[in-house]
Amino acid sequence: MLFEQSVQFASLSDIGFRRQNNQDSFAVHLCKEREVWERRGHLFVVCDGMGGHAVGELASKLAVDTIPHAFQKSTVANPRDALQAAVVDANRVINERGTQNREFERMGTTCTALALGSTGVLVGHVGDSRAYRIRGNQIDQLTADHSLVWEMIQQRRVHPKDASTLVPKNIITRSLGVEPTVNVDMEGPFPALPGDVYVLCSDGLTNLVSDQEIGVTVRELAPAEACRFLVNLANLRGGIDNITVIAVRLGPMPEAASLEGIPERDDSHSQNVSWVDLAWLAAMAASGLTGLGMMLLSEEWRAVGIGLAGLAVALFLVGTILRRRGSPGTNPSPSLTDSMATVLWRPYRTASARATPDLIDRLARLHAELQKAAREENWSINWEEHDELAQKFALATMEKKLSRAFRDLTKAISVLMSGVQAQRRRLKRESRWGNVQRKKDTSSGG
Questions:
Q1: Which of 126, 158, 404, 427 is the most buried (most CB within 10 A)?
Q2: pTM of the model
Q3: CATH class name, domain 7-250
Q4: Rounded to 5 degrees, what are φ and ψ at 272?
């Protein structure tokens, strides 16, 4: 990644449909100066607080205030070590505040912090908020959940398909602030490539929206539209928790950008035929020809000849596999790295980020239910805009243009969701007004 590369980002935090207050917090800090970026990098943080009333809200707010400041001010040269120290510092601040007031005792928060800098992508992580990377047609989860569910799966005590029904999903095993010390998982640095999209989010999203849905959404939509639709989708499925999303898209490599200080990539291994390829071909040819000659020479050498011919076939198969995956211990070719089959590192979980007929069908049914409710309850909807998008969606579906169909359908759902949000605001105003009237009646009656 270069300092000159454009970075599109958007962030959104929503209280959800069931909670009285929002305990999620987030922070976005983009470097304006090259020197600062080279030393540290852009920083994105999502935290999900835990504790009754405003306690969790305070914990997450302390974390997103402390981490960026500590990260930038750290005298540690290595950005990875500096980010880890900043998260540890946030743990200390929260824990100390918790010990000062009995009401704040054992307050805590999850934390996922992502830095984009000259060394690539770094992630510091505690809890079950997540970081994802979408590259090409694939979404990779960069962080491991510190939760009872994930621990039971990793210990092979439950099957992943059964885990959600057998193990409580809301029990986390590690957080900031609860204890005086904390173990911070550090991931990276990973190479940051043009077109990559990174997503940070709280479990209010991931408990209700699948990895595939997240991947397709941020791949097909601009960051602001993607954040809005993901929050809408989680709310449509119950909105049982606060929902926070940050989406970051890396722009193309600028043509006039300075490459000073960026190490040149060795492309010798990416040539169509390299010396390694020639050596491999020579070995296959020698084995195959020798084996064939021995089989023809005499009956007693036939078994040896067959063995050598089999060796040639094995060398061919192994060579084919290695060329596709990248040979262990060597750098993968740029084309392979760009499409990324996770050669250098394996994610904790991977899913497709393609729009599929099944996914679009699920969303279409959701859209139909929402549209029916909007008409029956007479929500305030821009029907002209909605119907135009619905027609575009129908046409794209008929033409089997799935990406376009997905984009039009999500926009149509977002138009309907604007009516839902207006309805929520109206009900809140009426509830607030009712409370005022009841207080007046009680006061006058007393």
A1: 126
A2: 0.77
A3: alpha beta
A4: -60, -45
